[in-house]
User: Which sequence fits this backbone?
């Protein structure tokens, strides 16, 4: 709101031009998603038309039906949700503790650790697919449930890869909580863990939400690990693999691909809409620090 | 207020290292006398993170390096042949291979174009957002969040479909605008247009992060400063260059580094959009190359060597960038 005063200074024609530009850009940016949903609802004949129309007169659920009739699609969907949920919750909790340690305590190797977290963000996780493949293979022999072909092989690496960024980001939020609050809590007889979970945790929750967006996206997006680690037990596969079924040598089933894509995108969209406000304010908060 | 001064006093000794103004680490919290009781507390808090990072990040990095020095193919994996130490042989083999260097150059150029385009689009739109009223702003914000939320794999398939030579609307639109050369044009057939197609998708799904973050940063600049400048008659460009850009620099550092990291290791988009690296592997980037070497042809040591090279390039690029910033007096 404070900004509007500045922006109102812009001369009228320019403001209209800016607003027109914004609306056009919004339309262009939204177009792929519109086309995806539209194509998912187009009947078979229309989607194979060489004169594609930006509307449909006979919306049909056939493509969705095909997607859900495909064996295990529902299961893949639940697998994806489960993996993403575990990663989001686990990495948020672990990162919250670690961020508190580096933001509110002074100890030996603190700076070293901070630099380590920063550098760790640069590690391309894709480059680690090979060693992780062997690690998961070996782990699977000793620890059931986290080896190759299990959801654990997708969950564990993603927790690790979400952590450095999450810690770095949450650190700002933890730092922003006034120290006086902590002192007051102790004076009132609160224990350290009580302060941690009942005072600090709720206060940095917006930050946790913003952070969780990143871990959710990167996990939900994952294609490489699912492709490399889930080789034989396809019932433990995730959505990206289900999508590939509709790519066929004899001609792609575009209706199926678009319907599956729509189904895959909707949970993320819902998640984004839910956290949208907190995301923007969260990024602002992290950035302000 | 009181805590502010207390913080300041505690911070003082470390001042030489931290030049950035603002609320810096109240980390002295436990350093004072009488807080001995919890010397191990931070380590307790850090333990889960360190265990996870140690086991699933640091150890795999060590393994990656190790495998890159071994002879490690299907025979060794299945235990049929003993694993032997090969020194730099894998690297030598890689560096002698002309294709490898082509892929390195392609990866670097492609990532650079992606980063620059993403940052340019993201920053321009962030500034645009501050210039418009609520409805266009909401429209653009929602569209961007939609693109951001779209998983890489679905984004890739949708963009391929949009540009499909037979069924896609984009060619039709281009033809309608009078560009008749795009009638049934196959974007994935030519090397550069295939890279361009991937570029569009990458920019589409990654500019929102830049836009939203920079927008949040601009909003956090005190309005009085901007108003004072505007009252003094400073032009928009000047306000941007002398006030906003310096204040936004920490954010720009973050979004640039993130963009470098993300765009350098694009895998899903290339893999899906160009079907595993393009016709005759013309659209190969390091990531896909390493994957193909390791998992398609079971040459795990070569794949690992490529992974090490990738890791090193990324570290060097990021460190050089950070150094440049430091030289400009920017504190992280």
Assistant:
């Amino acid at each position: 709101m404070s900004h509007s005063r500045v922006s109102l200074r812009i001369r009228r024609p320019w403001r209209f031009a800016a607003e027109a530009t914004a609306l056009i850009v919004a339309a262009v940016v939204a177009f792929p998603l519109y086309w995806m949903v539209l194509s998912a609802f187009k009947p078979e004949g229309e989607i194979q038309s060489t004169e594609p129309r930006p509307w449909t007169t006979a919306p049909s659920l056939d493509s969705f039906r095909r997607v859900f009739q495909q064996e295990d699609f529902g299961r893949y969907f639940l697998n994806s949700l489960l993996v993403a949920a575990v990663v989001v919750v686990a990495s948020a909790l672990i990162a919250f503790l670690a961020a508190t340690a580096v933001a509110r305590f002074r100890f030996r190797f603190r700076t070293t650790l901070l630099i380590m977290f920063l550098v760790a963000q640069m590690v391309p996780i894709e480059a680690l697919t090979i060693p992780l493949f062997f690690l998961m293979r070996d782990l699977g022999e000793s620890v059931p449930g986290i080896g190759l072909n299990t959801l654990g092989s997708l969950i564990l690496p993603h927790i690790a890869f979400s952590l450095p960024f999450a810690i770095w980001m949450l650190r700002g939020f933890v730092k922003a909580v006034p120290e006086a609050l902590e002192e007051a809590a102790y004076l009132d007889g609160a224990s350290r863990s009580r302060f941690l979970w009942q005072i600090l945790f709720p206060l940095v929750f917006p930050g946790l939400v913003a952070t969780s967006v990143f871990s959710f996206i990167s996990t939900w997006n994952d294609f490489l690990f699912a492709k490399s680690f889930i080789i034989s037990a396809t019932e433990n596969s995730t959505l990206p693999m289900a999508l590939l079924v509709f790519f066929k040598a004899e001609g792609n089933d575009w209706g199926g691909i678009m319907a599956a894509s729509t189904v895959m995108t909707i949970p993320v969209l819902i998640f984004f809409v839910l956290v949208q406000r907190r995301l923007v304010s969260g990024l602002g908060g992290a950035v302000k620090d | 207020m009181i805590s502010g001064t207390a913080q300041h006093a505690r911070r003082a000794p470390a001042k030489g290292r931290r030049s950035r103004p603002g609320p810096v680490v109240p980390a002295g919290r436990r350093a004072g006398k009488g807080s001995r009781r919890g010397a191990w507390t931070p380590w307790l808090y850090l333990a889960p993170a360190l265990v996870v990072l140690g086991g699933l990040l640091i150890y795999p990095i060590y393994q990656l390096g190790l495998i890159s020095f071994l002879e490690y193919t299907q025979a060794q994996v299945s235990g049929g042949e003993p694993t032997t130490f090969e020194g730099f042989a894998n690297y030598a083999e890689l560096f002698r291979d002309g294709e490898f260097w082509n892929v390195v150059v392609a990866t670097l150029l492609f990532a650079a174009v992606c980063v620059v385009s993403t940052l340019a689009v993201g920053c321009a739109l962030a500034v645009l957002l501050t210039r418009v009223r609520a409805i266009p702003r909401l429209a653009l914000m929602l569209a961007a969040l939609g693109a951001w939320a779209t998983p890489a794999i679905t984004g890739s398939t949708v963009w391929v479909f949009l540009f499909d030579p037979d069924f896609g609307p984009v060619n039709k639109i281009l033809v309608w605008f009078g560009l008749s050369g795009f009638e049934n044009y196959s974007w994935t057939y030519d090397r550069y247009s295939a890279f361009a197609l991937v570029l569009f998708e990458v920019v589409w799904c990654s500019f929102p992060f830049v836009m939203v973050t920079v927008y949040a940063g601009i909003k956090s600049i005190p309005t009085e400063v901007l108003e004072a400048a505007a009252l003094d008659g400073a032009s928009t460009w000047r306000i941007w260059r002398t006030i906003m850009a310096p204040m936004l620099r920490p954010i720009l550092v973050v979004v640039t580094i993130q963009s470098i990291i993300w765009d350098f290791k694009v895998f899903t988009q290339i893999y899906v959009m160009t079907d595993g690296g393009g016709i005759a592997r013309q659209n190969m980037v390091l990531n896909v190359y390493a994957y193909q070497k390791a998992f398609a042809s079971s040459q795990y040591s070569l794949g690992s060597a490529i992974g090490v090279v990738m890791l090193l390039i990324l570290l060097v690029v990021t460190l050089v960038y950070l150094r440049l910033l430091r030289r400009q007096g920017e504190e992280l």
Notes: Chain A touches chain B through 111 residues (CB under 8 Å). Confidence is low (pLDDT under 50) at residues 1-8 of chain A. DSSP finds 14 helices and no strands in chain A.
